[in-house]
Design goal:
about 210 residues, alpha/beta, 8 helices, globular
């Protein structure tokens, strides 16, 4: 019996190591990560999904302490949350997305990666209580509303008025957060940023910005 227990323990250990090796492989490149998704979803990556290196840099900046709660505003298929959660295992990442079809893809990718510090929420970000989160990531989820921009799909309404509304709404939410709140923006027009948030670093030709509220 004891030998069987030793054998079972060794098998579980080897299975765990194999899982870690397989999971790590998905983060070796964006192309490898996109294998988690169907081809039509992967094809949207160039314009709509966060590059892995951007997620790594953002995670390092936002992960200020153990169990810090970080919200991705408009998480799409979850690439930022999943990548950031891999690189910052002590932080908790939450992604909010109003399209159920995209969240389904996020949950399926999460099952493969088996990351326990990621949570996805099916909602419009205006329905959330921002006091539940410490820091934020924003890859201009509102930009689709502008005329002439590439859309992810036609499942939701778009308008310039919505673009303005969402920016004003996020501005007010961020304005209510305490000093020390951190925000990372990627490809943002910065309309959503209150004046007391200061840029402390920039990367990717200034497209990636790191903010702290004074």
């Amino acid at each position: 019996m004891q030998n069987n227990e030793i054998g079972t323990g060794k098998e579980l250990e080897l299975q765990g190591e194999a899982l870690l090796t397989e999971r790590a492989g998905f983060f070796e490149s964006d192309e490898r990560f996109h294998e988690l998704y169907p081809l039509p979803i992967a094809a949207l990556a160039r314009r709509h999904w966060t590059p892995i290196e951007v997620a790594r840099s953002a995670a390092a900046f936002l992960s200020t302490h153990k169990d810090v709660r970080i919200l991705d505003i408009g998480c799409g298929v979850g690439k930022f949350c999943l990548s950031a959660a891999y690189f910052a295992a002590d932080a908790r990442f939450y992604g909010v997305e109003q399209r159920a079809s995209l969240l389904h893809q996020a949950e399926e990718a999460k099952k493969v990666l088996q990351l326990g510090n990621v949570h996805f929420i099916h909602a419009n970000f205006t329905q959330l209580d921002f006091s539940n989160y410490d820091h934020f990531y924003f890859f201009n989820a509102f930009y689709e509303n502008l005329d002439g921009t590439e859309k992810i799909d036609d499942s939701i309404a778009y308008s310039n008025e919505l673009f303005d509304y969402y920016n004003r709404y996020l501005y007010r939410l961020l304005d209510q957060k305490p000093a020390g709140t951190r925000m990372v923006t990627y490809h943002s027009m910065e309309d959503e940023m209150p004046a007391d948030y200061y840029v402390v670093d920039e990367l990717s030709n200034n497209l990636l910005k790191f903010w702290i509220k004074a």
